[in-house]
Amino acid sequence: MKAALRNLFQPLLRVFESGEGEYRYEQSHRKILLAVGVLFLFLSAVSAALALASSQWGGLAPVLVFFLIGLVCEVIGLLGNDRAVAKIWGNK
Fold first, then answer.
1. Whether the predicted model's global pTM rises above the 0.85 cut
2. Residues 30, 61, 59, 71: what is their CA dihedral angle, to the nearest 10 degrees?
């Protein structure tokens, strides 16, 4: 299952997993990245519910942004290698 998901998200993973040289990775960074991803996905769901309840279609733009940020965090946190997580954090 993980291999199939890695193939599906390969274009995204390739961006973050590429590079040479040293990087600094800590296991806590992956856990925090997953937590931030969950928070962004939750924020996306709340924003969608409020936008639909108030019939404000312009409110769907933040939903898309929050959802994409949350999705990237979750994909990198769950499927990415240590270099990808370090690259998200900017640790070199």
1. yes
2. -20
